[in-house]
Amino acid sequence: MLHTQQLKIGYKPAKVVLENLDLSLEAGQVTALLGANGSGKSTLLRTLSGLLPLLDGQIWIEKQPAPLHSPKLMAGKLSIVLTDNLTAPTLTVEELVSLGRYPHNGWFAQLNSQDIYHIDKAIDQTQLSTLRKRKLYTLSDGERQKAFIARALAQDTPVILMDEPTAHLDLPNRVKIIQLLRQLSQSTHKAILFSTHDLDLALQLADKLWLVEQPGYIHQGCPEDLVLSQVFSRVFQQEGLYFDIESGSFQPANTTRHEAFLTGDGLGIFWTKRALARQGWRTYQTKQDPIQPQEITIFCRKINANLWQWELNQQQNFLSLADLLQALQTRVKK
Questions:
Q1: Domain with CATH 3.40.50.300 in the chain
Q2: Neighbours of 47 (CB within 10 A)
Q3: Which residues of the chain have pLDDT under 50?
Q4: What per-residue confidence (pLDDT) applies to 161?
Q5: Contact between 203 and 227 (Cβ < 8 Å)
Q6: 161 vs 167: CA distance, rounded Å
């Protein structure tokens, strides 16, 4: 759907941000653009959309050179949603979404039946039908972001770019927005690229990652492939922090002070291991030799739907992880 060939981006006359980029976006897929602050994510999005001139290389959309020389033609191929959307807050949702049709008929033309069809469809696809007459300033952050997505859908382009669409949203709304993008990519067969700092959500919900590694290289591929090949760990490695492949999360580095043998119900093991790691404990679930008297063993079991129990060294029972952690802390101080 969108491809780049030896793309070089940056700022004239001489500042190169990223170069030698051979990237691709596929129809029906959501791609997440990840990288550290200042790595060039926003510069890349603005270059792909034609808002910044490329320094060298080529951009192709639907197997044709992108019409970067013509904003009108480009707006028929690609739509973009920026973090700093400057739109009058007194517009209604419907009025905002209608702006997506201007590349097709100009600012002052009357909306025709085809325009109205795309506007209604975009509002329906983003579950905004009951809010279409509401003004933007009356919406929640999540609802407002949906409205900007609807505007991009109404533009009816094969490619949609989004700069941090989940910024300033709480966790439930971040999940809803990314799930919405997945649904839209599959139902409309559009290629959607969004930049984000939300690594966990990108790993869970993106079909593909573009991962910026300094200096100036972008890895692309399935999220799990980039994790298993250690690329993800290397890109986001920082002093005092590492990416734990087993848990799929970031952990403090070199904080392990104690060890414990952990067994029991699977879900309980996951959350117990997480709580213990926070307190500097490394856990293991298999061992060859019999348990020794000096070893610490923890067994977790599910009592009912809402109640768990932890057993420490077959001697003490606890009904909360907080109590277990307190007991372990007391034990190691002795």
A1: 2-244
A2: 25
A3: none
A4: 94
A5: yes
A6: 15
